[in-house]
Each structure stands twice: as structure tokens, then as C-alpha cells.
Amino acid sequence: MLEKPRLSDSLIAQVVRRNLCSFCGACMAACPVNALWPIGEEPTLVGTGTCAQCEICYYQCPNIEFSREDVESFLHGRTRRPDETFGIYRGTFVGRALRTDIRNKAQDGGVVTALLAYALDNHIIDAAVVAGRDEKWHSQPMVATKYEDLVKNAGTKYTPSPTLLGVRSAIYEYGKAKVGMVGTPCQIKAARRIQTSPLGNRRLAEAIVLTIGLFCMESYGYGKLIESYVASKGVDPSSVTKVGIKKGCFIAWKGEAELLRVPLKEIDEYVRESCKQCDDFTAEYADISVGGVGCPTGYSTIIARTEKGLDLLKKAEKAGYLELRELPSTEKGFQKVLNMAQMKRARKAIQR
User: Fold this and answer.
1) What is the DSSP letter of 209?
2) Which option is the CATH number for 8-60: 3.40.50.1980, 1.10.3720.10, 3.30.70.20, 3.30.470.20?
3) If one looks up domain 222-270 in CATH, what number appears?
4) Taking CA atoms, which of 57, 136, 150, 176 is between 20 and 30 Å from 198?
5) Mean pLDDT of all residues in the chain?
6) Which CATH architecture has domain 88-216+273-351?
7) How many whole angstroms separate alpha carbon 179 and alpha carbon 194?
8) Distance from chain centroid for Cα 227
9) Which whole-number Å values give the CA distances from 21 to 50, 142, 274, 298, in the listed order?
10) How does residue 91 score in pLDDT terms, banded at 50, 70 and 90?
11) Using CA atoms, how far apart are residues 301 and 276, in angstroms rounded to an integer?
């Protein structure tokens, strides 16, 4: 018996309808006929009879038939050992950007923005895809081609953005061939799925030359968190300049002034269902992973995973974009990251 083709309706039935879609944008970015497009926070088949029956969308999805072994072999030439709890890496560090304009705008230490600035300035990449936002704090992928773009869009948004659509835009609309992307663990998985899938979109796969992953426990639905909850607290989303999660609280600021501070448990119901099925806290398949856990205020914890990532980190430090110090596995900060990674893995196990 012939195996049933894996078409767009299979993707929608197995992922979207089961609330497993992380809204990474991979299926939409890879579709050769633009049959899939975002409506709300999920891919939707638009028009009638537009699907090319090519199976490409299905085989870009990081939530279907994802092979950790294939991806690790692609990145490192081997698979992880049992003691490599949060993936393979070459070094762990604590650091921050040296430019004050980056630190003033960015999340934590501004390391991601500084690394992208170095990569752009030194022609390692010719565009970076980051999460931007509109005036109502609605997340959307942005293509940054200069330093000012990076600083303007710095900071974590906490609602999903279809990052891979941004990669597509960088290639087809901006004409770029070397793209760096910043993403949550699921978005980094999507990039690696594209690069290792037998039906991976080769144009996208070859254009992604740098991945920086963000530590992530979960993201929130925009409509529920921003439009409903934040607005119900008397906060106008258009007045918010920065949001963050610190010491078990969700915080929104306007400049230096706090507009809102609430316990995370108060917004638990707005966590996207797909996040509860994810077991990757530290973006294990990125070139470099960055987050605000295990480091002092104003700094970031950095995991250099690939040789490419470690080389970029060291060169950015030498060129004066970053200050770094090593983070040994014996330090409390390292253990905090490890504990969070184990906590997220355990949460997924409970969901099964």
C-alpha cells in the first residue's frame, strides 16, 4: 500500500488543530505557492485549490518527525552524551554589550544585539532577522540590515513571531544571501529542521548562516496577554516600551517607570499550549544560546554551542563589542540554568 502524502491538510490536522503549532513560520516560509499564511497566530490554508500537493510544508515543521540525532550530527559531527543535559556546547560565559546605547534598550546584557552588530559590521551576515513589534506590542519578524535596526528592535517580546517568514523576506524581498536569525528554541529547531530535512527548502537552508537562540520557558498568546489582560489592568499597550520577566513576575515599563508588575502565576492561563509540549529551555540547536538566567542583573548567560558560535563570540569580545568571563559548571549560575532546563523537560513529561 502506498503511503499517504503528507500535505498541508496533514500538517493542519496533526499540528495546528492539536495546538502543537509554535508559529515559527517555517511551513509558510517554505511553501512555493504561498498557500499558507498567518491568520491570528497559526498558519492557515488561504484560497481554494492553491496547495501544490508538494509535501514541503509538512517536512519543514519542527514538531513532526524531528530527529535530534540528525541535527546534532549536522551541527557537531556527533550526538550528545548522557551527561550533556542541555545539549552539546563548547563553552559557557557571562557577558554584556559594551555599547551603552545597546544596554539601555536591550534585554539583560544586550549580548544578542552586540553579536549581531559585530556580524553585520564584519560581513559575516548581510541581514539579521529579529522580533520587532508594532505600536500595540504585536510581535512580528523584522529584517535588520544596519546597526540602527538592531538597536530599535532589541528586547524580548514574549508573544510569538513567525521568524522564518522573516528569513524568507530577507532572501526574496531584500535580496540577502547570508542571514542571521534570533529565535526561541522552537524557532531554532525549525531552522535546523529545514537544513536537515530531505524535503527542506534549500534556499532557506543555505541562507541561514548564524542562529542565536534565546532561553525560553514559554510564550504567551498576544490576544489574551496584551489585548485582554494588560489592557484590563488599565495599561495602554502602545505606552509600553519594554516588558520583562524577573524574579517570578511579569513587568511592563514605560521608560524607567513600572506600569505593571504581576506574579507569573497570574498569567499562566495565557501560556500557549504548544509551549507546554516543548522540552528545550536553552535553545540546544543554536550556534549561540543567550538568556538572563544564572547571571547578575545587567548581564547575560551565554552558551557557545558550535565552533562557529564560539569563534564569533571570541572575535566580538576581541573587537570590543562584548565583555566576557567564563562561567564554570561549578558556579551557582550554571546550576541555575541547568535546573531550569531540567524543569522544562520535566514539565513536558507531565503533559504526556
Assistant:
1) E
2) 3.30.70.20
3) 3.10.450.750
4) 176
5) 92
6) 3-Layer(aba) Sandwich (3.40)
7) 14
8) 22
9) 21, 21, 6, 33
10) very high
11) 24
Topology agreement, domain 88-216+273-351 and domain 222-270: no
Local structure of 17: helix, strand or coil: coil
Is the pLDDT at 2 greater than 50? The verdict is: no
> Residue 191 burial (CB < 10 Å; 0-12/13-18/19+)?
buried
* C-alpha closest to that of 71 among 183, 191, 182: 191
CA-to-CA distance for 42 and 208, rounded, in angstroms?
23
Output DSSP code: residue 220: B
Cβ–Cβ < 8 Å for 133, 166? no
d(CA 91, CA 309): 10
Taking the CB of residue 210, how many other CB atoms lie within 10 A of it? 22
**What mean pLDDT is predicted for residues 59-71?**
94
Count, in order, helices (H) and strands (E) of the chain. 13, 13
Handedness of CA 192, 197, 199, 205 (dihedral sign): positive
Task: Kindly state the percentage of the chain with pLDDT values over 70.
Answer: 97
Question: How far apart are the C-alpha atoms of 350 and 352, rounded to whole Å?
Answer: 6
Domain assignments of the chain as residue spans, ordered by start: 8-60, 88-216+273-351, 222-270
**Cβ-count burial 211-240 (b if 16+ within 10 Å, e if not):** bbbbbbbbbbbbebbbeebbeeeebebeeb
Q: How far is CA 89 from CA 120, 216, 226, 307, in A?
A: 24, 18, 36, 9
- How far is Cα 312 from Cα 168, in angstroms, rounded to an integer? 24
CA dist list (Å): 326 to 67, 136, 251, 343: 31, 39, 30, 24
